[in-house]
Amino acid sequence: MKRNPIETNTILEGVRYEIRGELAHRAMEMERQGYEIISLNIGNPGLFGYRTPETMRLAMIENLGQSEAYCHQKGIFPAREAVVMQQQDRGVMDVTADDVFIGNGVSECIDFVLRALLNSGDEILVPSPDYPLWSASVSLNHGTPVYYNCLPENHFQPDPGEIRSLLTSKTRGIVLINPNNPTGAVYPRGLLEEIAAIAEEHQIIVFSDEIYDQMLYGDARHVPMATLVHDTLCATFSGLSKIYRACGYRVGWVAFSGYRENAAELLHAVELLTSLRLCSNVPGQWAVQTALGGYQSISKLTAPAGRLFQSRQAVIDGVAASRYLDLQVPDGAMYAFPGVNTDLIPDFHDQRFALELLEKKHVLIAPGSSFNVPYRNHFRITTLPDERKMAMVFERMEEVLDSMTE
Questions:
Q1: What angle do CA 345, 343, 379 make, to 5 degrees?
Q2: N or C of the chain: less Cβ packing under 10 Å?
């Protein structure tokens, strides 16, 4: 009997997530063959020995007895109230626990908010480069991602003029990732005020991804978008994965603020979607109050003597020592987005370089084009490995780059 291939949903044609794509699959095959791979493709703190604060683990353990039943679809009250208190500490005074939804990571929160909002053909402004989950979630929910450029020559900062030029009658919202993944850029207050004014003028929703909000270096300062957006709806996304090194807990949230009098139907739709999945992971939610209300250990890691600061410095030093690489120094997050000088390697191709680096030097990176940029001479690495390992990585990169000029 002839069996036809099982067809998949055509909507997936516009979805890409190369961070865990073919290169990552090849790396897994090589590991099964006995090779030791240095995986720099994902910001996964636990993989590099960063531990979740002990107080958070204890909070989960102590409340396991209360974690066996479904909780409220929006999440347990202590977790939502902790988010409210954090927002108020930052000057966002118009948030209540009813405005907070807990999800299985920020990823799920992004998906159910966009699913509640978008109809076919609706447009969402997304940065380029972006974290590809945003583009994928827009496409999967029948919307159209429209990219505004954050160019290397502009220090990966958005251009408000370009953002304004991209607005149409179909534009429903704008995504900001600050501090940025993949570039590590941190946006200044004046720029954010301009973008907030555009959103308010055109009554589009601001989706502010602030998962790296406290992961800052040097003089960089994070300005919460919710403190600037008042006359339109603002959705702030954050969670435990990065600042609190608890990726596997799968706890994220979205907090709605700003003008909400015309948003009742949307918020009801979001609650309906959260109800359909019953609730998010309950044990992990018990860590939220302790995390947000306790000692913020991230500040020690990002201080000049801290491990994250030193690893970032090793990346800066590695690029500086390279004949081929340049870098807009990351001011936040746990990534760097180096570029390759195409005057020295005119036919450089990020995907080909990434494959050769993996096959020959056993280092896994994410090609820059994975982040929805039109150029092919960048790549993303996480800055999580220690200084010694990072120095080794750049030595191996240089050897591969040298071979491309021969």
A1: 60
A2: N
pLDDT in tens, 85-138: 999 999 999 999 999 999 999 999 999 999 999 999 999 999 999 999 999 999
Contact 224, 90 (CB under 8 A): yes
Indicate the fold that domain 10-51+300-403 takes in CATH. Answer: Aspartate Aminotransferase, domain 1 (3.90.1150)
Convert the pLDDT of each residue in 158-167 to its tens digit: 999 999 999 9
What are the distances in angstroms from CA 297 to CA 215, 341, 400?
11, 38, 38
**DSSP state, residue 340:** E
User: The domain 54-293 is classified under which CATH number: 3.40.50.2300, 3.40.1390.10, 3.40.640.10, 3.40.50.1100?
Assistant: 3.40.640.10
- Tokens representing 353 are 């370089």
Length of the chain: 406
The structure tokens 């120094």 sit at 329
- In sequence order, what are the residues at sequence separation of 6 or more whose Cβ sits closer than 8 angstroms to the Cβ of residue 34? none
Token digits of residue 30: 């090589």
Name the DSSP letter for residue 332: B
Closest CA to 393 of 322, 343, 308, 305: 322
Secondary structure, 3-state, 166-212: HCCCCEEEEEEECCCCCCCCCCCHHHHHHHHHHHHHHCCEEEEECCC
Summarize the confidence of residues 137-150 as an average pLDDT.
96
Bridge partners for 325 per DSSP: 340
**Whole-model pTM?**
0.95
Q: Give CA separation, 239 vs 12, 117, 274, in Å.
A: 27, 22, 17
Percent of the chain with pLDDT over 90: 93
